[in-house]
Amino acid sequence: MNPNIESLISDLGTLTSFSLKAGALEEVVKDAEKRLRIDYPPQLRAWLLGHDGMDTTFGYLYGASVDGGIELVAALLDGEFPNFRAKQWLPIGGDGCGNHYVVPYDSDDTPVLYVATTACHDEAAYVVASDFDHFLTFLLEHEIRFRRGEMGAFTPEWPFDEAFVRQRDPEISRFGTVLLPWECKDRKRSKSAVVVRGRRRTSKSSSTNEPISEEVFEAMRELTRQLQFRITRKTSKAAFRRAEKHAGFVMPDELKMWLLQCNGVALQSGGFLGVEICDIDGLNMEDVLSFQFTDFGRQGLWPVATDGHGRYFVLPATEEVRPVLCFDVEISTTIPQYVAAPSLNQFLKSYIDSEFAKLRQV
């Protein structure tokens, strides 16, 4: 395996409890190739023999074994995204928001492509590295710098900083037939759609984030009817302005939309947070930002919900695409544990569904 990659893995191990799976056996890798009907590109094959998959703050890589997710890769190739097989794209991992990194598996060139499958799985959104080793180097360096506190969670130089990426991976320019990441950011917002970090938007829209659906609101109303949960008084736009002034950063429109109808709800454990007039103990956003977990405020994160067991779900204030992140505050209030959902709407739907599941188990 590339010595630089092994050095980065060693550095990462000194910062946290970060650990990797042991490498897959040669026969396991061969079985995976037979199962997928492909030959792994050499750099990827070397990685799998050294480490059978990896999870990071910002995504994951598949391994060659069953535990490493080989059956999921097979399902992506031959079930969920059959165009991957048609294009000879091998899924190697994801960003944690439903989008995938792929490499061509029957070509002398093996750039790593980002496919925004939550928006369009027929075309690559952009190329992120000229080969697997450069991709893995960028991913590991990103993780290390974030865990050292040298960069924010949502301001990575890779893949969107042109000077940074070209200097470290000059061969990426050879793949200009696929959109380069910085072209996504720099392209003028005209009538044509612009792909930004896995979402597609047009200049007609001021936001790339989906609104809260009526389905979610109706599910929440039904849940409160069944369990007689207490919802605090509805809030107001004036309260949002005061909350933004208190926090020092803007509140996303989709969060305002939710709070106007559901400003704080105490569930069986934990609940949804509210602003200002939310009088449920422990579920006031301003208290969380000012007294309990000030790191959220410093990072521009709005606390949306808590499970009552030390996990908080937060929404970034200013990102064009806002996933809901999960923090285990007993471990860290600066490093998220995982991406809970690619949008607030999808998070709310999933969270409410889980409450109904608990109810059915009673």
Classify the secondary structure makeup into a structural class: alpha+beta
First and last CA, distance:
51 Å
Spans of at least 5 consecutive residues whose pLDDT stays below 50 are 186-208
Determine the strand fraction and express it as a percent band.
15-25%
Count of distinct strands: 14
Shape: globular
Q: What is the CATH class name of the largest domain? A: Alpha Beta
Domain count = 2
- Quaternary class: single chain
The CATH architecture name of the largest domain reads: 3-Layer(aba) Sandwich
Rounded average pLDDT: 80
From the alpha carbons, calculate the radius of gyration and give it in angstroms: 22 Å
Q: Largest sheet, order of strands side by side? A: 1-2-3-4-5-6
What is the share of helical residues?
A: 25-40%
The helix tally amounts to 14
- CATH homologous superfamily of the largest domain - what is it? SMI1/KNR4-like
Q: Please trace the helix and strand order, writing H or E for each element.
A: HHHEEHHEEEEHHHEEHHHEEHHEEEEH
Any idea of the CATH topology of the largest domain? SMI1/KNR4-like
The main sheet comes to: 6 strands, antiparallel
Give a quick set of tags describing it.
SMI1/KNR4-like; alpha+beta; 2 domains; 362 residues; six-stranded antiparallel sheet
